[in-house]
Amino acid sequence: MAKLPVSPEKLITRFGPHLNFAPQEGYPGRDEPDATVKTHCCFCGMQCGIQLLVKNNKVVGFEPWMEFPFNQGRLCPKGVQRYLQDNHPDRLLEPVERVEGEGFKPVSWDHALNRVTTEIKRIQAANGKDAFAVLSGVSLTNEKSYLMGKFARVAIKTANLDYNGRLCMVSAGAGNKKAFGLDRSSNNYEDLEHAEVIIVTGANVSETFPTLTHWIWRARDNGAKLIVIDPRVIPLARTADLHLPVKPGTDSALYGAMLKYLADHDMLDHDFINNHTSGFEDTLAAVQDYTLEWAETVTGIEKEKIRQAAELWGSAKTSFLLHARGIEHHSKGVENVLGCINLVLATGRIGRPYCGYGTITGQGNGQGGREHGHKCDQLPGNRDITNPEHRKYIAEVWGIPEPELPQKGLTAWELIEAIHRGEVKGLLSICFNPLVSLPNNNYVREALEKLEFYVCIDFFLSETARHADLVLAGSLHEEEDGTVTTAEGRVVRIRKAVSPPGNARTDTSIILDLAARLGEADKFSYENSEAIFNELRIASKGGTADYYGITYKKVEDNMGVFWPCPSEDHPGTPRLWEDKKFATPDGKAHFNPVKFREPAEVTDSEYPIVLTTGRVVSQYLSGTQTRRIGKLVGLMPEPLLEIHPELAQRYNIRQRETVRVSTRRGTGDFAANIVETIRKDTVFIPYHWPGRKSANQLTIGTLDPVSKIPEFKVCACRLEPLGVFTQPGETNAFDSI
Ligand SMILES: Nc1nc2c(c(=O)[nH]1)N[C@H]1C(S)=C(S)[C@@H](COP(=O)(O)OP(=O)(O)OC[C@H]3O[C@@H](n4cnc5c(=O)[nH]c(N)nc54)[C@H](O)[C@@H]3O)O[C@H]1N2
Ligand SMILES: Nc1nc2c(c(=O)[nH]1)N[C@H]1C(S)=C(S)[C@@H](COP(=O)(O)OP(=O)(O)OC[C@H]3O[C@@H](n4cnc5c(=O)[nH]c(N)nc54)[C@H](O)[C@@H]3O)O[C@H]1N2
Ligand code: SF4
Ligand SMILES: [Mo]
Questions:
Q1: Nearest C-alpha to atom 3 of ligand 1 is from which residue?
Q2: Taking every annotated instance into account, which residue ranges of this chain make up the domain 4Fe-4S Mo/W bis-MGD-type (predicted)?
Q3: Count of other CB atoms within 10 angstroms of residue 269
């Protein structure tokens, strides 16, 4: 037999662990997969195209999907490793029930689902309909998001339904609606390529949206100027033309000062302001005192840098402004977003080629999931649950009398507070791990323990699921057909590659079965996911997020369709507002006055350091999925506290020494990573870990008054070195990030 160029073992690990490698004569190939399925990555809002390789009903590897226009085959470390979660030994294969003192025991589906419906009825009979709440998530497809909204309101009949996007994009959504009447990136990302100036603020693109970096590099290759605004010198900032190291919680002062500079130096687009906007005078009046000197004292950014940023922005002919959670996770998240939009409108650079603005959507279906009605105040098509016309339309689609449609319910954090008050006594959650991802998790844990009944649908036993009475074994992204909407606003097709393993079920079948047991089978019978999508199309018709003209076939034929798409002969809308008709009632884009105000908690002598939290490239959200993928764990096994050398010296903290971080909510111990790339008054902790390694032991539950997003990005802390070294002197790739 000819000598193999690579050992069989190596080939097996290279192409996935589950292929039967059969050595052959000559040059060895691998077993052909049974199928190659074009779908999308299950993680972030980029929704990169990927091809999954399937063998014997298991996902065993992947191949790039070169033709998909956004990522053109590129994937980040999470996308490359994602398939490894499929056959993970921790996968829940059947429903389990918690038996006090004994742990979780497997039960039959019939027992599990009957118990859920019995508990819902019991709790609601004793305490009213709204005493049973639902928490949903936007890693779910559009079909499932839509279904969860309808299920909560029509089958459970509760007003209390909200979703994990409440921790994510709601500040941007509220700001976008106020300014434009519609909540979507104004342009697709190909328009970045020819923008003259790009501002990226509060978005660690290289780590959180790695494949988007490509479009920013393309722009740079074409001569674009790049301005990065972030308390840390994030990877993207290293080759930026300007980096503004903003003090966390002070962005609105920066944007206000930039707006005043543009006005003082005649860098406004008067035609656009006069013809297509409203509210400019009041908005400018609000920042009359915002001099560069004042902004320097508030934001900690040298005034010359602010001037340069305003000059670059003001003198460009084309531009793109992108932001993410860095400016949105604040008790003034909506104001920060409006501050950015004011800069875009003042220069009239929207609704044209290479002139764009947008929040970068976080979760896989962060865009579509926030449009189709599993928010407490929303109905499908981004309709308003308090609007009588909207209520009437959706009640008709769902075949119920309008008065039976519940009113607006509580937001995610408010639900936790209501559980504490004893008003909410039962909970069903799907696709949400609040014990890790909500702020002040000691308070969240106490709430979960107060519930009379809690049922969770997940495919892993998440930290939150451990507090459930019942955990229903649900499905992964690749186990059901559906659609998601990418951060660009492109509706794409998620294709079923495999069936759920063991006795696990698809999320959809679990929800439909529960609805039937609650007596609503007639309103919840669909032949397949496409049938749910077709109902969603009708429910969204005429709403601002209009999907009516989008069909599965059209999505498949075109590798995606951009909404709004109001009729089947409509090609979709990659670039919004080219006709300058905004989606507001008066058709104009609205300026909104923004005054700077302090974060909820500022530093003082007791808690003198600013704490901010966020992400690293190798982990995803609460980590339930990525902490189970060995290679990703290897990149960063535990969260590190990023701290500047001068601040470390002040507290005598050494590299990799364990530091106790305390806030008014709790304490946590984290190994120090001393880096020059962070402000001297600020420390950063990534939040993907649970328990004693959770950043959310420390964060504050103060909400933005409009969007109700928690202030994850700023609170006050103190530091205490413990003299313990868990990883003595060790360095890794992240030391340079
Ligand atoms: N690797 C990875 N990628 C992800 C995710 C993940 O968990 N891991 N999650 C996805 C999701 S759901 C989301 S929402 C996105 C989030 O994507 P990002 O918003 O890019 O991620 P974060 O790390 O939360 O915050 C971004 C930056 O905000 C900065 N920042 C902190 N405070 C301030 C401030 O006051 N002002 C400004 N201007 N900046 C500030 C931080 O230093 C940080 O670099 O990522 C998505 N992609
Ligand atoms: N301190 C701090 N906290 C933060 C943030 C921060 O920057 N700082 N960021 C916030 C942001 S932006 C976000 S988006 C939230 C995210 O917070 P979460 O939404 O709680 O995080 P996930 O890890 O996505 O939790 C989803 C759970 O659903 C499961 N799941 C995933 N896909 C599916 C599916 O298709 N079906 C079913 N049945 N289950 C599924 C996963 O296994 C996981 O257990 O965290 C927020 N928390
Ligand atoms: S950039 Fe986002 S969607 Fe693309 S491969 Fe990475 S995690 Fe997946
Ligand atoms: Mo998010």
A1: 208
A2: 34-90
A3: 17
The answer to whether residues 502 and 421 belong to one domain is yes
Mean pLDDT, rounded, for 452-464: 97
Structure tokens at 101: 């003192």
Residue 639 and residue 503 share a domain: no
The first and second tokens of residue 319, run together, are: 């531009």
How confident is the model over 241-254, as a mean pLDDT?
98
Question: How many Å separate Cα 614 from the centre of its chain?
Answer: 12
> How remote is the CA of residue 273 from the centroid of ligand 4, in Å?
33
Please indicate, yes or no, whether residues 182 and 307 belong to a single structural domain of this protein: yes
Q: pLDDT (tens digit, 9 = 90+) per residue, 68-101?
A: 999 999 999 999 999 888 889 999 999 999 998 9
Rg of the Cα atoms in the chain: 25
Nearest ligand to residue 436 Cα = 2
Q: What is the mean pLDDT of residues 587-614?
A: 98
* Ligand 2 centroid, distance to 437 Cα (angstroms): 7
Report how many domains make up the chain.
4
Is residue 687 in contact with ligand 2, taking CB distance under 6 Å? yes
Nearest to 248, CA basis, from 688, 719, 712, 594: 712
* Same-domain status, 162 and 192: no
Q: How confident is the model at residue 4 (pLDDT cuts 50, 70, 90)?
A: very low
Residue 369 CA to residue 622 CA, distance in Å, equals: 18
Q: What are phi and psi of 728, to 5 degrees?
A: -60, 125
- CB 142 near ligand 2, within 6 Å: no
Q: Residue 122: phi, psi to the nearest 5?
A: -60, -50
- Closest-lying ligand 1 atom to the alpha carbon of residue 250: 35
Identify whether residues 201 and 310 lie together within a single domain.
yes
For residue 424, the domain's CATH number is 3.40.50.740
**pLDDT of 1 strictly over 60:** no
In a domain, 273, yes or no: yes
Domain span including residue 431: 96-166+365-525
Residue nearest atom 4 in ligand 3 by C-alpha distance: 48
Cβ(133)–Cβ(153) below 8 Å: no
Distances (CA, A) of 572 to 490, 533, 695: 9, 17, 41
Ligand 2 pocket member 168 (CB < 6 A): yes
Q: What distance in angstroms lies between residue 191's CA and the mean position of ligand 1's atoms?
A: 22
Q: How confident is the model at residue 729 (pLDDT cuts 50, 70, 90)?
A: very low
For the chain, the average pLDDT equals: 94
What is the identity of the amino acid at 630? G
Q: The tokens 């079909």 sit on which residue?
A: 143
**Domain of 59: which CATH number?**
3.30.200.210
Residues with CB under 5 A from ligand 4 (ion): 168, 362
